[in-house]
Amino acid sequence: MAGRRSCMSAAMETQSQSRLLASVRGFVRSLVEDICNGRSPSVALDRYRTFCSDPFGNCACSFDTPFAKEFISIGRQPQAAHRLAVLLRVLSIIQLLLQQNKHASKRDIFYMDPALFVDQAVVDHIINDICVLLRCSRHHLNVVIFDSLSLLVMGWLRFKESDRTISCIKNPNTEHPIPVCLEDVEDMVSVAQYILVVEKETVFQRLANDKFCDRNRCIVITGRGYPDVPTRRFLRHLVEHLRLPVYGLVDSDPYGFDILTTYRFGSMQMAYDAKLMRVPEMRWLGVLPSDFEEFNLPDRCLLNLTPEDKRKAEAMLSRCYLIKDAPQWRTELEMMLHKGVKFEIEALSAISFAFLSEVYIPTKIERGKHI
């Protein structure tokens, strides 16, 4: 049965690659025809967004529908010729990757022609444009992240990755790297009761050292800060296939809050793919601004919000999805901004070193103290 699934997966991947290669050829052909017919080459790109800043929440933001189009037109825009040259060069590299069934990182692609690309950010932006142009996700282009050691999972989970069996269940407090290529994952089995996503590796390691998963049937994941594509795709895959509740544990500061919204609503940078990576089921377990008083944490644990923190929090308050879909999250963010202070997950250690793993997390989940 597993072999049959692998064959089906390989066949679907081949079909997808063939479709993308045909789309690349069609796109280039259309540009050549424009030039041959004396027309200025022009490229139309759909533009997506995960939120707007409508103060009344009366927006039409959608994860499936573009809100505008952007045109790259030589002759009308000073930088259009260079941008189109970069797009075509990156397309030629991606075409080669698909033809040879090879994978590369964005950094690999940059070093294929650094004189043309100038900066890594240029390549990153163009790859997003190509995803929009070809109506696909980045992994379909065989552009992946090879450094997966920072993306960790532990707990009551077992799955196959290519020909290997990853059995976290054997020792649920031992970390394992999150798979980079989700297409290689199959036969996922779990007896967990929930998924816990933690912002930082230090907190992940604290839970591992405290043998948290021995006492709690769960799966713990960290993307070490802002989550990258493999972390978000893997989490989405877990939630869809295991049908488990998922909780987020982040610092009580604007950056922790932003990380949490990235998991739940997606990032603006990859808004075109948000519908495939966002996890709308995500619940905010902690640490909440209101937790400080509820758990009587000492004042020495508080840090003042910096001017940059305040600007970030104020900007996030206007996001339409907080008004429409997460008003309780918005209330907590308002409280943080009003009090002008922040604190980290590790502040709970002021009560006791084991308070986070033995009291805070299990008690809040048991009592439904999440939003």
TrEMBL record:
It is found in: Nucleus. It comes from the Eukaryota. GO terms for cellular component: nuclear chromosome. One of its GO terms (biological process) is reciprocal meiotic recombination. This is DNA topoisomerase (ATP-hydrolyzing). GO terms for molecular function: ATP binding; DNA binding; DNA topoisomerase type II (double strand cut, ATP-hydrolyzing) activity; metal ion binding. Its EC number is 5.6.2.2. Its cofactor is Mg(2+). Belongs to the TOP6A family. Pfam families: TOP6A-Spo11_Toprim (PF21180), TP6A_N (PF04406). Coiled coil: none annotated. Keywords: DNA-binding, Isomerase, Magnesium, Metal-binding, Nucleus, Topoisomerase. InterPro entries: Meiotic_Spo11, Spo11/TopoVI_A, Spo11/TopoVI_A_N, Spo11/TopoVI_A_sf, TOPRIM_Topo6A/Spo11, WH-like_DNA-bd_sf. It comes from Carex littledalei. Residues 194-365 form the Topoisomerase 6 subunit A/Spo11 TOPRIM domain. Residues 82-143 form the Spo11/DNA topoisomerase VI subunit A N-terminal domain. It catalyses: ATP-dependent breakage, passage and rejoining of double-stranded DNA. PANTHER family: MEIOTIC RECOMBINATION PROTEIN SPO11 (PTHR10848), MEIOTIC RECOMBINATION PROTEIN SPO11-1 (PTHR10848:SF3). It is an enzyme of class 5 (isomerase). The active site is at 111 (o-(5'-phospho-dna)-tyrosine intermediate). Its main location: nucleus.
